[in-house]
Amino acid sequence: MSIEDENHVAKFADPFHLLGTGIISLPIDFPGTPFNKAIKASKFIRKELLKIIRVRKVDLAEGKATPTQDILSHMLLTCNEDGQYMNELDIADKILGLLIGGHDTASVTCTFIVKYLGELPHIYDRVYQEQMEIAKTKSEGELLNWDDINKMKYSWNVACELYWSANSTHKNEEYFPEAEKFDPTRFEGNGPIPYTFVPFGGGPRMCPGKEYARLEILVFMHNLVKRFKWKKLIPDEKIIINPLPTPSKNLPIQLFPHNA
Ligand code: HEM
């Protein structure tokens, strides 16, 4: 939605947390229950999204926003095959869906990348090597592009190998030998056979954010390993499920800059 003002983003943080916790909870709508708090939070978020949508309509009409600048402009200006445009509430709902689908998923993955690379120096070293090959081709301040992302093959295999909380999947020894071992090389070559590895689901309702998530996660890894090594401060920190896996003490680490 092209919102870069930190205070504006922060306004969504608390209601979003309530929504994330309540969305997979017992559906009991009674004052004080997580479900009830989530409904209230979603009402607040929808109201705020409607304000943003209305401002954007005016900005588009006055030429202050462009039709291609982001998904909000796209949703306002694209009609279906019958020539109908989405109404404001539909757009708010779609954006809410994208925010829910896209926020905790990618950020939890980034958290676990920090955890595992902090625990497994031999994996860290290969990620570092791969990312430095790319960093070396860049001039000062030059941004990563799509070709760079596609060169980050080992780093993506590391992201694929991370924690998966549904215990029944990705553990079948027939398809994932030594399933408990952290081994990103299992994704090399053709990788696991189709429909055995399904972190983004499969079929027509497969996650539409997959490539965006890959981009976000790999850019995060690039910028992190390029600058730092790190050490976990709580070696055996527990993982709690809330509803996504989360380190119980927020994964404190100590950073070591490469050139210090
Ligand atoms: C590591 C990151 C992510 C993981 C592991 C993930 C995983 C999933 C899974 C398993 C599904 C259900 C697929 C199915 O029913 O077969 C899904 C659906 C969805 N995801 Fe993601 N996702 C991620 C990132 C994102 C991002 C970044 C966005 C948006 C920007 C997003 C938006 C959605 C939406 C809108 C759906 C519902 C699709 C539908 O029902 O048609 N996801 N995701």
Provide a quick synopsis of the model.
The strands form two sheets. The chain has a two-stranded antiparallel ribbon. A two-stranded antiparallel sheet has the order 2-3.
Folded structure, characterized:
It holds the Pfam family p450. This is Cytochrome P450. Its cofactor is heme. It is built from eight helices and four strands, in the order ααααααααββββ. The radius of gyration is 21 Å and the shape is globular. By secondary structure, the protein is mainly α. The strands form two sheets. A two-stranded antiparallel sheet has the order 1-4. Strands 2-3 form a two-stranded antiparallel ribbon. The chain folds into two domains: 1-86, no CATH class; 101-260, Cytochrome P450 (Cytochrome p450), CATH 1.10.630.10. 51% of the residues lie in helices and 6% in strands. It has helices spanning 6-23, 34-61, 71-77, 88-119, 121-136, 146-151, 153-160, 210-227; strands at 228-232, 239-241, 245-247, 253-257. The chain binds protoporphyrin IX containing FE.
Helical content (DSSP H or I, runs of 4+): 40-55%
Specify the CATH homologous superfamily of the largest domain. Answer: Cytochrome P450
- According to CATH, the fold-level topology of the largest domain is Cytochrome p450
Look at the structure and give the CATH class of the largest domain. Answer: Mainly Alpha
Total beta-strand segments: 4
Binding site for heme: 207
GO cellular component, one term: membrane
Cofactor: heme
Keywords: Heme, Iron, Membrane, Metal-binding, Monooxygenase, Oxidoreductase, Transmembrane, Transmembrane helix
